[in-house]
Structures
1.
Amino acid sequence: MTAPLPEQAEFAPYFRSHQVRFGQDEALMRQIYQLRFQIYCQERGFLSADNYPDGLESDQYDASAAHFCTFNLKDELVGYVRLVHPSGSQTFPFQSHCTSLLEGVTLPPSSQSAEVSRLIVHHDYRRRRGDTLGGFNLESSSAAPDHEMRSQSPQILLSLYRQIYAFSRTNGIRYWYAAMERNLARILTQLDFDFRPIGLLIDYYGPVTPYLADLYETEAKVGKRQPELLAWMQRPEPMETK
């Protein structure tokens, strides 16, 4: 008799993520722009709402980015991130704010790099003091009761990272830039996603530090310390659209 296969670990059972086809999924992109407006303009005041009279926040990087969103079991949009891979003479978004690098830092080839940008989670999943825009909190616990909505926010982030990881592996992207809060960087490090700082603290939609991650190094570290997590990352949900 054949032994049953071991059950595969599931790190985001309450959410599903998809890539969004920019220029095609117009209705979904509109929802995304509305969510970005709510968070960046109305909630945080990083951008002036007066500049977006239609209530839709977008910028010049959207056309050169891959877009991803997450839905809960009620089919509600609860998270979003984009992966910016500039073309032509464009620079990465963080470079318009970070004008100098730490001593000894050498940037990798642009053709193999992308910036993790506009990472956001719906307000309903960020109810604790200290929650980052990505939904993580240093005091959060994956063992919190399932009925607590706030306990699911780490799953949203992991679900989104799973998608950008799959996209990166398919499209020859080895390096990720990210301008993020130090708390988020610390939590990602705890998960063995190593982002190293490449610049000083800057005001870039709040106080953030520019970081760089090498996906080859991340794969090696996660594979050694958390093989189930790497296996889950490498068997992504189908990159279908909603």
Note: The CA atoms of residues 34 and 148 lie 25 Å apart.
2.
Amino acid sequence: MQIRLDKFLAECGCGTRSEVKSTIRKKQVTINGTTAVKPEQKINPETDSICCNGKKLVYEQFSTFLFYKPAGCVTARTDKTEKTVMDYFPDSMKKSHSPVGRLDKDTEGILLITNDGALNHRLSSPSYHVNKTYYAVLDSPVPEEAAGCFLKGVDIGDEKPCLPAKLVILPERTENTVYAAELTVCEGRFHQVKRMFAAVGCKVLYLKRLTFAGLSLKGLEKGSYRRLTEEEISDLMQMASLKNERV
């Protein structure tokens, strides 16, 4: 398999096509120990040794990133009027990668971005019971009976009640009278968290997804992202029942 050098560098996360072309011109890329000079040069990522700024690059058929989505952008590849989550990534990834599931425009927090279609589908499916934990600030105290309602499966007006969910009501912060809770669900229905709290008489004022499939936002700032480690990918593959299928 042969691909252009600049395309390979961009897919490895070394920058946009224009940025990696500049890197090549600065003689910071080598192919099998020889300095590269042409962005359009064809390479075989399976047999050639490519280094960028002294670091050897490894080509991966699939790549998955953990992204700290800010509020104010939509969870989509493209949008004619709104900023999307993919606008935070290199242009070379906008056609190949997609968000896993979705977060509302005004919701911030953890979101996975991948070019692995099978993994994306299974992590988004309620059949695989992928846990997601949200932190919510509410307009009023959460009724004590809400935890039991959520655990049984609350009715939010769909054909079926929600699957069991775990609610933790957080202590009130008296300085500004903040009512907050953490909710762990294993589905991704339309506006699900907001509708669940509405079902018990509370309006969500602020919402942040803290975890997804055991992954957290530790070390990331809003709008930043990182590539998942091999161990994290392995755990996700196991969760999605894909690990044995690809052996």
Note: The two ends are 21 Å apart (CA to CA).
3.
Amino acid sequence: MPSFEEMLSKKTVFENISVLSPHYIPKELPFRESHIKEIMFVVSPALRGQKPRNLIIYGKTGTGKTCTVKKVQQEFNAFASSKPSRIHYINCRIYNSRYRIMQKLLKFYVKELEKSGFGLPFLYEKLIETLEGGEQIVVVLDEIDMTKDLDDLVYTLTRANDEAIRGGVSIIGISNKLSFKESLDPRSKSSLYETEMIFQPYTAEQLRKILEQRVREGFVEGAVDQSAINLAAAITSQESGDARYALKLIMKAGEIADQEGKSKVTDEEVESARMRVELDITKETINTLPAMHQIVLYAIARLTDKGSKYARLDGEFNGVLFSGEVYEEYVSLCRALKKKPRTSRWYKEYLNDLEVLGLITTTPSGKGVRGQTTLIRLGPSADTVMSVLKDSLL
């Protein structure tokens, strides 16, 4: 039987593997200095006892949004250690409702909230009391679009700001979707969208420099060929510009080198890592989708597996589905799962989101198709999607 002693005695290409984690915040964030400066400018009034403007940050996955905001949070909280102002970070995929967000936020100020059983009116009164003490609170809502009752949350915080004379609470929202604000009511939209910022995907050259920085800290000196770094950056740039993908790719390449007893990471290990990382990221992306998105994706996978009922004998539509048949399958699945299906307008939003994530591709129908519709093609294999979703959905 293998032992941990044996494992730890083996040579490794890694110096500190945690440096390659997407959650690691380096001392310097390459190519995000201007974003850091802008966010610092937005939140700095809190250090003077004034309420900052709300800020919404957009950008695709892996563009450094969360890491940049957390960097500012670190600097802000260190500077404000003796002041009544603080930035709090909340992941809305975990704390996904007004009640849970307020409870999580206020636990820092009200120790009795460690116990459960307090209602929303109690939380609201405690928020007012906290603000009346002069606190300037900035709450970072990562994946803000995952908040089920965001309109209610925005209304509650706005009302608290109106009632409190001394302090204030501001929001920094982070989202992968430019379109999510369309679902907000006009009052929430006008109060929430005071400032907006967009993070563009990294270029191949930027990804190369980011990888070089992390490789210097994370790997034994000389353990990674420069050509391997260049290849990982080029692959990522072609795929998505997602820095998290690039970091996973170089980390997985290092793990492969360790498993095979090699002392260097070369192009060969990067190529071997590519397929494994793509599958890992696909599974992770699917698992973290909201329920309705998962049902739509499962409907697409199931129809892809069975074959479109509109497929022609000449194979023109092999692997391609019509939007209407997918919607019918989605409604059928919702009923089977005892969930209320959403309208076709929401369904189109789900398709847009799945396409942004690279899980499907859509194109308008052309010649040979009666009427106007959208043609849908699944990105990953139908087997992969169904096996990932079978447990969580069915």
Note: The longest strand covers residues 168-175.
4.
Amino acid sequence: MNSALRQHYGWNEDWPAPAKLNLFLHIVGRRADGYHLLQTVFRFLDYGDSLRFDPRNDGDILLATPLPGVPDQVHLAVRAARGLQAATGCKQGATIHLTKRLPLGGGLGGGSSDAATTLLALNHLWRTGLGTEALQKIGLALGADVPVFIHGRTAFAEGVGEKFTPVTPAPAWYLVAMPPTSVPTAEIFQSSTLRRDTDPISPANWHDGFGGNDMEPVACALYPAVARCLEALQRFGDARMSGSGACCFVAFGERHHADAALAKFRLEGPDATGFVARGVDFHPLSALDNTY
């Protein structure tokens, strides 16, 4: 392991769970089992949730910071910890402390990132020694966005979101707007108006500014707050929705331009909050390994 990471990350330390953006998101088909086939580019942000883990000798997985409306047994971080126990036969437990900054149902991958960081952290702290592919397999059972956080770098993703090709977007700062609503992913996928036949491309043909988000029209029709947010952001550039919504973003080449746009958005835009974050091409835990 990178010695700095070994020294910094341990029990009772904060472990980062970064947000992601979908720079584009196309639905190119559907499998016989109903799963949608996607093409997207995932990019991490230098902003997100954080988690801390306390050791337990009784094997229990406890969440010290419950989320309103989310039972502990379905919380993705709890499920990730239990999935790692089941896959490895580990008898250790943990108490999980979550500092939540990313909205639920926001399309920024908050729950998926929390789950991935839990897998990466506890695989290290419990010394279960699983490699990236094994952790991704556990993660995919929790949600389609979990594997990319374990993969650890910006990627063109295909399949149900688990096949990765490295890409390198231009450096960018993002104004990310968070409308006062939560969009259930399942509702978008179940919509009869969702486009499912966009022509696929080769990862080599992707470029900055390519495509759009096939889920955006459905989310805007069902949740007017998303449509209002996008309309307000369009004055600053090519505004897009991330994932299945509700959060939307615009890219800028310089931070001061993003900061200025955020200030104007807050004064003149819809009832939405926001932040500015830098796009990063590697997960902050990407150098973490399990060689002891």
Note: The domain at 1-292 is CATH 3.30.230.10 (Ribosomal Protein S5; domain 2).
